[in-house]
Amino acid sequence: MDPRRLEYLQAIGVDVWVSRSGPAPAVSAPVGVPATPLPVEEPVPVPASPAEDPLSTDVQAQWDALKTEVLACKKCSLHSTRTQGVFGVGNRRADWLIIGEAPGAEEDRQGEPFVGRAGQLLNAMLKAIGLPRETVFIANVLKSRPPGNRDPKPEEVAACLPYLMRQIALLQPKLMLAVGRIAAQNLLATDVSLGRLRGQVHTFGELNTPLIVTYHPAYLLRTPADKRKAWEDLKFARSVFQRLASQES
Ligand code: URA
Predict the structure, then answer these.
(1) Quick check: 15 and 30 in contact, CB under 8 A?
(2) DSSP H helical segments within the chain, as ranges?
(3) Residues lining ligand 1, Cβ inside 6 A
(4) Atom of ligand 1 nearest to the CA of 112
(5) 177: buried, middle or exposed (CB in 10 Å: 19+, 13-18, 0-12)?
(6) Between 184 and which of 100, 193, 213, 247 could a Cys-Cys bridge form, CB atoms 3.0 to 4.6 Å apart?
(7) Could you tell me if 205 and 188 are in contact, meaning their C-beta atoms sit under 8 angstroms apart?
């Protein structure tokens, strides 16, 4: 196995072993999980580099205007308790859009999504499928931190979701990855459990953008036994993306 990939898998807490009878690698379950081997990982990396040509001045201006609007937003009461709005970060030409729930304490302090412990795990998970953080775009359903990290209220989601819709319209990602129940249920307008939303290609919006659901990294920090399932989700997302990319070329 590629030593870097091995390092990443270990970083996200998925134990990896190499069979003595042959070179083919397999991924074993973390301690406490039945050791069902996962499919052998194919070496093909996800094409991570976005297109080279720069965005038009007009599209850049629309992104900048949207960011200014979000940072000044007072559409819900969260503006009075937040330190700052958290717009989103990453490559404005990214193929992949990662969507979380809402900023936590560290994100509220730094003004960037997924920069705390959950963010470090998210980075490692993305890197494991060949997607360094800077190649994707990362945003949340809510742009302001709910006090004490409580779940977003419906009126907060209703006020904030149009910002995410505009980000999606500007980015036009090829694939969306919703991390966690809150992001998945709000984007898909459903109350179906996260467990039942996993493992399928949903579609989002008028462009029918493929949307895949996985666990939130903060949940995985609390429940490491489910990292194996998250790894399956990531490989599934990667295979869907690769299939789309091969259909385009
Ligand atoms: N959890 C989220 O859903 N988003 C963040 O930005 C940080 C933690």
Answers:
(1) yes
(2) 3-11, 57-71, 105-110, 117-128, 154-171, 181-188, 194-197, 217-222, 227-248
(3) 100-104, 107, 113-114, 118, 140, 218
(4) 6
(5) buried
(6) 213
(7) no
